[in-house]
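Tutorial sheet, problem 5. The two components below are modelled jointly, 672 residues in total.
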Amino acid sequence: MIPLRVTAYSIACSAGTGVPALAGALRERRSGLRPNDFTDVPLETWIGRVPGLEDLALPSRLADWDCRNNRLAWLGMQCDGFFERACAARDRYGRDRVAIVLGTSTSSIGATEEAYRRLLPDGRYPEDLRRPIVHTPHSLGDFVRAALETEGIAVTVGTACSSSAKAFAQAERLLRLGLADAAVVGGVDTLCGSVLFGFNSLELVSPEPCRPFDVARRGISIGEAGGFALLERDGPSGPWLLGYGESSDAHHMSSPHPEGLGARRAMESALERAAVDAASVGYVNLHGTASQKNDEVEAGVLAAMFPASTRASSTKGWTGHTLGAAGLVEAVVSFIALATGVVPGTLNSTQLDPCCGPQLSLANETADLRYVLSNSFGFGGSNCSLLFGRDRRD
Amino acid sequence: MTERDADVHAAHLLGVALWAPRLPGWSIAESVLRGEVAAPDQPASRPSPSVLAATERRRAPDTVAIALEVAARACESAGIGAGELASVFACSEGDVVINDYMSETLARTPLLISPIRFHNSVHNAAAGYWTIGTGCMQPYTALSARHDTFGEGLLEALVQAEADGKPTLLVAYDIESRGPLATMAPTRGIVGAAVVVAPGEGVAPATGLRWRTARGVERTVPLERNAGLVAGNAMAPCLPFFEAVARREPCTVRLGLSPSMLLELDFQFSVHKVRQAQ
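Model answer (structure tokens):
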């Protein structure tokens, strides 16, 4: 692969709107989780809700794409000067030379759910929701393409909770083959009934704020987030994407491989592509959903692969599990760690499960990090690990 | 055309599969698309992929059934074990039947959502079942690009094949929508299409491809006599590609990647294959 520079990045999630806000929340250990106030039918759980989306107005030229998910995409693009940087790249390289590769698990299904709640007596959609583009999985990719006015490759990746991590891998291949000069990758997923009641049906939703890797963890807290990264062959500043690894568990639709074979393959492949050995990785941002099975399996792979000196944590106690956006959110957490040296611990958790190795951190630490690995694993056994570096590696 | 638009990549096809109610399998589809025989009048019933256990075959959503059927047929046709191939799953509208069920249930009794239907609602469900059923630990991806899903899916398969230097499986499919969602995502019938692509020049009788991306809006349209065979299904834009494969004559097919970008494919057929066809 070719190293790619992350020349701009942005984030909007419950723990912070904008990179400085998220960095502050990580440093000061402020969680974005709050008791569920999203669903009409009560569901006892905590959620990572982004405030203000209900009142956010898209520019009139983008009104056709209006829905909660695309509003969050818009908010994410407006953060951290990302929109201007992406438009500048588009003008520099040409409209057809910037690829759009975005990950989401449910895209704007929330708009479809709303239409079904408000069906007219004759069974038709309410008039304001008769917009096919928000009832299709590519709603997100098409919206961002329209918002940035690009004219190149535009695609939406949907591999559940690995979606936006895999967007980085797909974008690297496009740039390596010369099919684009820059890529806008990102992940956007919003709270909706499908995921809240869906994960509830699988008995995976925690009634309290999630406690990743805690011996008494009770499941996941679902969050929403929108964020982006601009990838180029080089640029004036920014961290580097040095490696990625992808694999399939080939085991079960909603449960990880018991020995974490797929997860391990993805992590090893990311290290191999980057030509970085495990001992050089200063921090691993784990998938760490706080589900019984994920954390147990992931902790086992971590302990087997890394020396005791490697720090590792899950930051889902801050943001909740943002599903298809998790890869992007945790890439941004990785960038913050590389830039500030603040290595986040694991929020809400107090007593580590005995399955955890010495790498797992509850408290924040500081370290001079050169390499960070970020894990994202999804339903359907889809695994992706990303290796980021502070500097280019030649 | 800019200089970069002229960047041309080489690939070849190792295997193909196509399934639609009136094109049930590649051997029939190939003859029909060539105009040699008429399509069967009676639509075939949903395929029953052998990758799944017998009990699972009946319960499988249409998305999973069609995707696994064409995926397995393309691997057979390529003579490659399914477990060895990285794959790209492409579906324009997702599982519209499950989305209808989820939305309807959420509107009435959200606490009664079926856990199985929930985990089958993810866009990568078919890819998940495929890798589980074949024991394949190679990576897969699952994507959509609305009307340009087949083009984007094929591009990603070609890109992966070239980037990783090995054959890659593309599986593209869409099913029939129902309920109120069908008014917004109107897709009819069941269509599945799969190809195994490999990088570089192939050995005869493989179908050779020269491919590039280019600005443009003029997509190749299917022959009038064939268009109706998949009309109404969201994966219908795949048809010109399979017409070209069936016809075995040099030609260029243009598939959409986005509203103003195309994937251009020059089909090349070896002398050996042309003679065989005559």
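Marking note: Chain A has a mean pLDDT of 97. Full credit if you identified this.
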